[in-house]
Design goal:
Strand order of the largest sheet: 1-5-4
Oligomer: single chain
Largest sheet: 3 strands, mixed
CATH architecture of the largest domain: Orthogonal Bundle
Number of strands: 15
Radius of gyration: 24 Å
Number of helices: 23
Structural class: alpha+beta
Strand content: 5-15%
Length: 500
């Protein structure tokens, strides 16, 4: 997909991007233990994504067309992340759905196939007006109740199918996306990109198109056979697949499949570094820091050369350092930075490893020209990482080494923040009707005034993440204290959704 879409002029042009691991389960019986458990019951799903500070893992049923749709939809979203970061949600959602039917043949690639379920919704349900469709943010569309989200996805897909129905659609779609992302009102941006189309009544034309015409797939013809495009595949090493499964499932509900996967991996290859790194991730919240550090050091021992293993170990060491006392923080940050530097030597395109390396070096007051160069390289790839953006802003405003004073350091906290005003989350009706419940863990940055300045997801339940973050943004805290002064810190906030 990456190679084919690049031929179409679509996809990331950045040198670094978050790692994406796809796990295709060829047998339903093998996938079944990894189905999501909701309301104490196992729910059949075709696949799902786990995002974390370590990367992105997608597990899906390879023999189920719905599983491939999930995998292609999510992976397509990662390819479009740079191009459409701030574009309207309908363009991002519509394009991801458009790409979800991707199929590679020996001499061509196809996508944009008809999707009867979405077409039926688009032609038979009330659609949003063009103004409402383009005004919908990522958070607001995720908060739609009842069948609203299905209608939004179907109309967004129908919009892209309609605009892509003839000629080369990409230049105009890109023009529309970039104009709206940079502040041009959607109506004006649409008129400039599609002067032959009217903004008024757009939803009616989408409904007629879905009713009267069947979308035809888009084709990209390869100039040479698929195997010559440059996609390199390798057989997994012994023990690697169950270790990857453990990382996919880590901190995501039922721990039994994770433990079983780790045992399978270590039985195949005792002391496999990737499995040791995954076990270190699982141990973080349950074992003393020195035990976890020992496990991560075993994973990242001098003979380890696998980039992912080193990235997982280094990023987890960094997390431990940021929660340790001042005496051990700086040495552990330097150790984590050294491990991440080895990861980058093996794979310099991993945005998470690069961002972690930069953060370790900056926080340990080691702002060398190399670190500055890597900071400037990674900042555009992780726009949602508040620390990296803060570091980049400070370096842009100040000459080295003055930038270190502007960046600041991790404060030594004597008193952690205490929640004094908690706002319960809204429970979306769609999630409630599907029996989805559980705990979302949110990272929240608490400012010196006790207000929540930024949030990120640590432990995800995709259908509930936006609601959890929306609630935590409204919480109020007594701020953390360091040497008698309030300081800004990050904390973990669990948000529970229960049907009972």
């Amino acid at each position: 997909m990456t190679a084919a879409l690049r031929m179409w002029g679509l996809g990331s042009r950045l040198a670094v991007r978050p790692r994406v691991v796809l796990l295709a389960f060829a047998d339903n019986a093998i996938f079944e233990p990894h189905e999501l458990i909701m309301d104490a019951e196992r729910r059949e799903v075709a696949g799902y994504l786990r995002q974390s500070n370590l990367g992105n893992w997608i597990g899906y049923r390879e023999n189920d067309p719905r599983g491939r749709l999930v995998a292609h939809h999510v992976y397509g979203s990662t390819l479009l992340a740079e191009e459409f970061q701030r574009a309207p949600s309908c363009i991002k959602v519509g394009l991801a759905a458009y790409l979800s039917t991707f199929a590679a043949r020996s001499d061509r690639a196809e996508f944009g196939h008809d999707q009867p379920r979405l077409r039926n919704i688009a032609q038979s349900s009330p659609l949003f007006s063009a103004d409402d469709l383009f005004a919908m943010s990522d958070a607001s569309q995720a908060a739609l109740k009842d069948d609203g989200q299905d209608r939004f996805i179907a109309e967004s897909w129908a919009l892209v199918e309609y605009l892509a129905r003839s000629g080369d659609p990409w230049p105009q779609l890109r023009q529309l996306a970039h104009a709206t992302a940079t502040g041009t009102p959607p109506r004006a941006a649409f008129a400039a990109a599609y002067p032959q189309e009217s903004w008024e009544g757009l939803e009616d034309r989408l409904r007629r198109y879905m009713r009267d015409e069947k979308p035809e797939p888009r084709q990209i013809v390869f100039g040479s056979p698929l195997e010559a495009i440059g996609v390199k595949l390798r057989a997994p090493a012994r023990g690697e697949v169950p270790a990857q499964i453990a990382l996919w499932r880590a901190k995501n509900g039922d721990p039994d499949p994770v433990e079983a996967a780790l045992q399978d991996s270590l039985s195949a290859v005792p002391d496999l570094p990737l499995a040791r790194a995954a076990r270190g991730v699982m141990m973080v919240d349950e074992f003393p820091p020195n035990v976890v550090v020992s496990e991560l050091r075993a994973a990242s021992r001098p003979g380890t050369r696998d980039a992912l293993t080193l990235s997982v170990a280094g990023l987890t060491l960094m997390r431990l350092a940021l929660h340790s006392d001042r005496a051990s923080r700086k040495p552990l940050l330097r150790e984590a930075g050294d491990v991440l530097e080895r990861s980058l030597a093996a794979d310099s395109s991993d945005a998470r490893a690069l961002a972690g390396f930069v953060e370790c070096r900056v926080r340990s007051r080691d702002l060398t020209p190399l670190v500055v160069a890597r900071l400037e390289r990674v900042a555009p790839s992780v726009p949602d990482d508040p620390d990296i953006q803060r570091f980049a802003s400070a370096v842009a405003r100040h000459a080295v080494p003055d930038a270190l004073d502007a960046v600041g350091d991790v404060p030594e906290v004597e008193e952690l923040p205490e929640a004094i005003e908690k706002v319960p989350p809204d429970y979306p009706e769609l999630a409630r009707s599907k029996g989805i419940e559980g705990e979302v863990v949110v990272y929240a940055r608490i400012g010196e005034d006790g207000r929540v300045e930024a949030v990120r997801i640590k432990k995800s339940i995709p259908e509930l993440d936006e609601y959890a973050m929306g609630a935590v943004r409204q919480w109020r805290f007594r701020p953390a204290m360091s040497r008698g002064q309030p300081v800004r810190v990050w904390v973990e906030v669990p948000v529970r959704f229960s049907l009972r």
